[in-house]
Amino acid sequence: MSAKNPYANVVSLSEEDFSAARVLFRHDKLIANYAWDSGIAIGYFLAGLKAGQILGSYCAKCRKTVVPPRIVCEWCFRPMQRFVKLSDSGTVNTFSICYVTWDVRRISEPEIPAVIEIDGASEGNGILHKLGEIDPQEVHIGMRVQAVWKPPEERCGSITDILYFRKV
Amino acid sequence: MKYRKVAVVGAGMTQFVRRAKETPPELAFKAVRAALDSCDLTFADIDAVCLGTAPDSFDGIHMNGEYLSNGAAAFRKPYMRSYVGGGTGVFVPIQGWYHVASGLFDTVLVVAEEKMSSYYPHAQAAFLTIFDHTIERPLKPNLLWIFALEMNRYMTTYGISKADVARVSVLHKRNAADHPCALLGDPHITVEDVLQSETLAWPVQRLDVSPVSDGAVAIILAAEHVARRITDKPVWIEGVGWCLDTAYWTNRDLAYPRYVEVAAKMAYEMAGIKEPRKEIHIAEPYDPFDYKALHHLEGLQLAERGRAIELYLNGDAERTGNLPICPSGGLLGVGNPIAAAGLMKVAELFWQLRGEAGQRQVPGNPQRGIAQAWGDLMQVGTVIILGR
Amino acid sequence: MEKEVAIVGIGWEGFQPTTSHYSYKEMIYQAAQRAYHDANVDPRKDIQSFVSVAEDFIEGTSIFDEYTPDQLGAALKPMHTITGDGLHGIITAYLMIRSGLCQIAAVEAHSKASNVRTLPQITHYALDPILNRPLEYHPEFIAGLEMNRFLHESQLTSEECALIVQKNRRNALNNPSAPYGCDFHLDEIQQSEPISYPLLESHSSQTADGAIVIVLAHHSIAKSLPKEPIWVIGVGWCNDAYALEYREWGHLPYVTQAAMMAYRQAQIRNPASIIDFAEVDDLYAYRELMSLSALNLIPKTQLGEAIYGGKIYPEGDMPVNLSGGSLGMGNLLDANGCARLIEAVLQLRGEAGKRQLPSPHIGLVQSWRGIPTTSTAVLILANS
Fold it and tell me: What topology does CATH give the domain B6-120+211-387?
């Protein structure tokens, strides 16, 4: 070993040290509000969702259709000038069965997030969404799924205009 | 070699704990003090400081680099914070490397700190905001989702079982039992324990995951002429590499980390390594989840695609094996204060290559090791190669 | 004088109070295209390393570096983020090129300040959480403290600060990229509302959106590219005390230290006589004066004379912020330093249009990250 100990001790606290007020601490909350400009490509994508469509964009150089759409191809750095309408069905690329929420609350009815390769986009091009109307044990990679949309009057141009995807 | 030679000459770290009483700058300072003391240097000997810390939302400070500056001994010094998400811990020594290699500085302090316990009630909620603000966040995604999605794709593509993946967690947590700073070392843990732990997001269970932690690590880099004055056992930085893949993670092959491959090839080329499996003696791949170590060993070209698990099944991965993996105990065992955890791996190589790793020492005088970290939306690989 | 690394391409988009037609990615893409065209490089083939500067809470995204590569042509390439001013990013590219890691690198900085609805609250979150935040002051009180002490020590008044506002906003009228050009009378400036005594609202820059991309190259390549290389001959950067309680409020020792580092490297002993023009931090009007003194360009006792004698005006010996500075171009958050740098490159190339100085050779650029930081960077640039 080296002559000097390179490991420094720290004071380890428990949750009870806080709840029993054995340590002094200060609680603070960040007030952060944003209004992000969606711009051209995502602007079209959201308008498409409102109309009940999934839009992608096409790179004429790479001959590839990607989703979500963008105005430049990240692989050849040429502009993507065409937005294309894709199908609202697809294939499960991968999925999970999740028993905790984003803020770590336990849930008994699991959520089933999945990457769904959208029909009409080039192979391997998917989006993140959820699966519904299915027993978690039945879900498998390669499963064919279809979007379940909110009623048109409730759509607001958001990814949540699609409620979830269900088994075809 | 076409680059100016840069050595690691000192290292220090704090214990990794679930909740430290110390403030973030105090944690950083403790690691800096230990690193300086390890090689008998003082603040006045430091020409510049590089800092790594992952998202500001953990510490709960905007411009966290500014807040940490004085704890990182950067008062009235050239100081910069670099940032590649979870890959930061192995990137920040690369940043230190180019500071010295540029010829502008001879002695540079590299510090990584994370205090995840400040976020209340649970640091994981901070991860909601890593997702695309317009097309993903409204789905209320959970950090576990992306790991679970990737793990499922990886296991299914190559037909790897949960029981096999659990071997990674078992080895790393057992190794960590020998680390004086470890949070979750356990010499008796078994595969059964992992398989019976709570399911969080199938296929991810509680013991597949590294713990939220607080901690800090610091190392000191020096140019060759200075390094030889400071120590007779300098450990050289032989190669560095990093790579950031596209942000469109749902358009990518999740079964293979090609960004790690690109980063590793950059580092191997710099180090003149042609056959990594023969020329690397210790590997510290990034292991926030057990399957990630496998994924990364494949990206690092230390195993064929889908076959990294064999290193664990045949004993190669053990400290006494042919390719010891995470002899430190890794993130799964020592703990995962994000940026600090990555730099802990680099400090481990430093101690291992100098024969100073105590109970954790890999036998047989290892000559060369590789450390790697990963982060962002399963997107960035950072790689460093150290040699005697 | 060392001519090892040069700026070979610049591009920008925006510099407007709002830019709602583009997402941040699309705005950056426009700037990147122009910079690559200016340098005649292909990002997919020629650029080996990329740097962005960004802060998570400004973007509203944790681990924001995730979203940096695609619009720059940097996917699956070495790219990293620096949480600093744009000049810290430029220095990073400079260090990487000098180290031999790459020969061509690109740096990106941007502001979508118009998308941040609670900027003061977020800035407040940069203060010490235990000692300062509980006071619940608007964070610009820090500028008030600093301005007050500086005026006290320098014997200057609010009037001289107003002259800086007037100068920079008039300069901006000659800069087609500056959104805040205005021909103010002094009394219009001085009648504005106080923010934190003695700081007035008019003495403070207003936010703007914009994206900037800059390409740097090693000398072995720079000379073969179409544009005249603008050499980076000195770099310096420094941090001071984070704690408000430990600062030297009347002057900026960290700016002096960063400048001395850059001057040493550029072998400049008498900056005031060698440097032809300066683009410096003016997030608040008093900061321009403080910076000029800290940079050893004008002694503190001669700042008044430099204003009334015309030295820092476009026709003077040491024109300062010909671009309009942040007062005239807007506060671009961490892109401020790069906006100052663009002006310096345009001047040294002879492309500054109505603002063009007659044959400048050496320019200085300095930036500050704004309250509550003590983080600064300095670049010294020269043409051939």
Answer: Peroxisomal Thiolase; Chain A, domain 1 (3.40.47)
